[in-house]
Amino acid sequence: MARRNDHSREEIREMALEAAEQLVSEQGPGAFSARKVAGAIGYTVGTLYLVFDNLDDLILQMNARTLDRLHGRMLQARIQCRNSREALLRLGETYIRFADEDPHRWEMIFGHRTAEGEKTPEWFQQKVARMFALVEAVMQPLAKRRSAPEIAQAARALWGGVHGICILALTDKLGVAGVQSVQDLAQSLINNYLEGFTRQ
Amino acid sequence: MARRNDHSREEIREMALEAAEQLVSEQGPGAFSARKVAGAIGYTVGTLYLVFDNLDDLILQMNARTLDRLHGRMLQARIQCRNSREALLRLGETYIRFADEDPHRWEMIFGHRTAEGEKTPEWFQQKVARMFALVEAVMQPLAKRRSAPEIAQAARALWGGVHGICILALTDKLGVAGVQSVQDLAQSLINNYLEGFTRQ
DNA sequence: ACCTGAACACCGTTCAAGT
DNA sequence: ACCTGAACACCGTTCAAGT
């Protein structure tokens, strides 16, 4: 057995991530397993361990790609806006639409527990931080009298809030039905928060 | 083998839930398994299936008890306050302190994914709804000019927000260190939101 | 050098068989 | 009637052995 060399390391990595994303999207996180991913790309489980450290590593890399796509969409949403207030609302809308379009892939990012003792690697944390930095940048012109640390804190509070509404709604814990209601909640949070934050 | 009758059904249920809670508290959700819970109470795995439908059922019942304790704490926090604004801030503080004191048990509630196709049972959803009802009740006197549906929506937006800050911070995604920073973020969210919501 | 396949130590769940 | 223990179909992970 063995030595097929049909694909380079990098190709196998790409195929595996592609297959993993499809599996999660279509059947949810519960259906995800190393054997299924391997089977889907025509290799054995062992091969996955030549390319990834372990299953957590594979999931992390898959989640990184999802975060990259989200970040891309958020960047795109911002440049289509004429003012900062509109941009902030559009960022929230984009965030929720993205989660709603592929809830399984989304849950994979924020529902995935890093193993006890292990901590999320730096490069992944930065992909999350990048999102908050984007929110900060948009909030800056809205509260010119606030200091940089104040704006950083506000961006975290507000975006944590948008995220919370999103995650509770997607997991059926908010008692609201339909994406539009979730969008309304988030817009309400952003608008009212801004009211308080920019005044005074 | 078999027929010990040392404990009634109800006693086994109680022991199992107790053991499950301890296991999760001390070793995290990853260490949790039916065999470990059974072992901890001196019974076999099979016995658990005489008392619970399946592992999801056990987890749900454990989470229900956690939610009951949280609700109790929140009720207690409210009656110690002189006005509604203070009560709302104390509710947020209580929520976050509770999560921080036992993060694993907390994550079990909101990180637990109901199996694909299955949906969370009604009786559990109501325990979550009860929490939002409490927030609503506290917000009511703060915005007398708002309609009941408006207040219901505001409670969900605001508490979804507090939850989001809490969950992101606990899973190290907010880039903040220490409980106090999380508390600060939540208080900032509540204060600024209220500012916008109660004005006008 | 590359990949396999079988092994290991775990899972959740079921259920005939013992007392 | 109550509980067991073994079985089944799965896991993640490792690694000697084949080509």
CATH homologous superfamily identity of the domain at 83-197 in chain A = Tetracycline Repressor, domain 2
Distance between the termini of chain A: 73 Å
Largest sheet, strands/sense/barrel of chain A? none
Report the CATH C-level class of the domain at 83-197 in chain A. Answer: Mainly Alpha
Count of separate DSSP helical elements of chain A? 9
* Overall 3D form of chain A: elongated
CA-atom Rg of chain A in angstroms: 20 Å
Q: What is the beta-strand fraction of chain A? A: under 5%
CATH topology of the domain at 83-197 in chain A: Tetracycline Repressor, domain 2
| Average predicted local confidence, pLDDT of chain A | 95
Task: Pick out the low-confidence regions of chain A.
Answer: none
Structural class of chain A: mainly alpha
Helicity range of chain A: over 70%
* Number of strand elements of chain A: 0
CATH architecture of the domain at 83-197 in chain A: Orthogonal Bundle
